[in-house]
User: Fold these one by one.
Assistant:
Number 1:
Amino acid sequence: MNLSPAKRRKLLIQASPWLLLVFLTLFWELVCFAFTVPTYLFPAPSDIWAAWLQYRVPIMQHALQTLFTTITGFGIAVVFGLILGILVGSSPVIYKALYPLLVGFNSIPKVAFVPVLVVWFGIGTVPAILTAFLISFFPVVVNMATGLATLEPELQDVLRSLGASKLDILKKVALPRSMPYFFASLKVAITLAFVGSVISETVASNLGIGYLMMSASSTMNMGLVFAGLVVIGIMGVAMYEIFAFIERRMTKWATRGAEMAF
């Protein structure tokens, strides 16, 4: 079947992530085999696959727990981040007052909050949810506020001269215009939420991939540790792609120029 150069290029672009993944996996396997790297130091992909086959049931149980805490914390972060982002971005006074506090809060390592959360809520699911919330909250607020705050003053003046109120400008122009910023924040925040959940699970939980990895590392079962890492990566990529798909469907107007350029 003859394909046009444009179709071949499109197929190559779509297949490039998979080709790179296969190449890196084979290279990883070859390096471990050639240098006889011990499994307890750095397992080969075949060792990770063997660990997955052996422990797939507990891995899936812990993975579902991590997915639950991540999505719950992320969902709370989106709700509160969207509300606060709209308030910060639509008011210069609130922007000037709150933005330094948000930056200062985001500068604190979130792992430092975990012992406090354990004291308040005990060991388990709640600290993991709250850690995912704390670590994924900031990108949503900042991107949403930035999208609203960068609305051109000239455009606002024109809309006011046409009789639009401040609320009309916010609902009909500013919020739709900020959607690319919002979806960009979601793609960043969901990956950070996984980081928050796993951090909390390694410190203060008896469930989740983080707990499983800590337990496996204590017995030098590095194949299981890396299997947990792979599962987290797969879940993160899957959630990222879901939001990327929604973004393409809802903000196609913002990327049509870039698509034409390719």
Number 2:
Amino acid sequence: MMLANGTVLGFMHGDLPASLRPASRSWQSGTLLVACGCALFAIQPLVPLAVSVTVSNGLILLGLTAYCRSLYAFYERKPGVWLPLPAVLGTLGVFWFSAIQPNTEIRIIIISPAWLVLMGNSALILKRGAGRDDAMSRRMLFAIFASVFLFTIVRLLHYLSLGMATNFSIADDASRMNLATPMLAAILPVIGTTAFVLMCSERIRRQWERAASTDYLTGLPNRRTLTAAGTERFKAARAQDESFAIAVVDIDSFKAINDRHGHDVGDIALKHVGARLKSATRGVDLVARTGGEEFVVLFDRVEPDQVEAAAERLRAAVRAHPFAAGTVKISITVSVGVAICRGEDADFNALLRRADEALYAAKSAGRNQVKLAA
């Protein structure tokens, strides 16, 4: 099952986005390494003890290291330089106490902390990922790592309590723990791989949702998101008798910037204006780019006598900060049309049309100013 899961993940690798392929490749490597290590344990009577114990434990430790590296890559974090050390030290220790001074108890004492460090670190990475990813698959994978981590502690304490002889074997059926270990060892490569694939699927779904709701250039909400949010806030304002206002912001003479400096500079200018508008609003307000050089700001719970001042802050924030692109430095201004929700507004689109009319009035009056809709 481990080999099958690793192979299936290999076939899926090419269908994943480039950002997820490093994590997928590391997880596949981990699954195949653990599978090979377990397979070598299964044929232990056919291979010299020093070879089978050392190589199988080394492969499993490398597999756990690959899982840890995969999770670092998934959350776009850089692993520490210490990451290979548990596998290296654990493998060397197992080799010494199987080939030089055979002692099963000391081998278990050496290998268990190495497992715990790698699995504990993987669980910690998943725990810290909760801020970015609240998917059930992440919680499931965290539970798997935590469960195997706790089992490893119980396993270590169990074997220590037995008072093992130096030639004690963990590959026969003399102890129930000998039977439980391979069953638990299969959880990460089999069920864990399924959870990891679901994590990748969930990440892709969120990326598509973000792409569908976000302006590709500025990272601000797009027209689709604006319409949905505006409709919802319009209804809430009507139901709760709260004030609701919007501002339509348009960059003055934007075509001249594109014509004179090129579209690349124009794109930088759009991102600059979006950032300045965002900096001049509160956390509850929404700033969206609706296309071209036009932006819309939803003012949430703002008093009618404060709306014009809030819109003026938008205009001033852009005017006060010229933007630079290489050697090009341009002072940009915006015109702003503002509309406060009135009883005659049938829906959000009606409010938006009135703000548009106020914007045209600001343009006609000479640009770089705020006009309030009648």
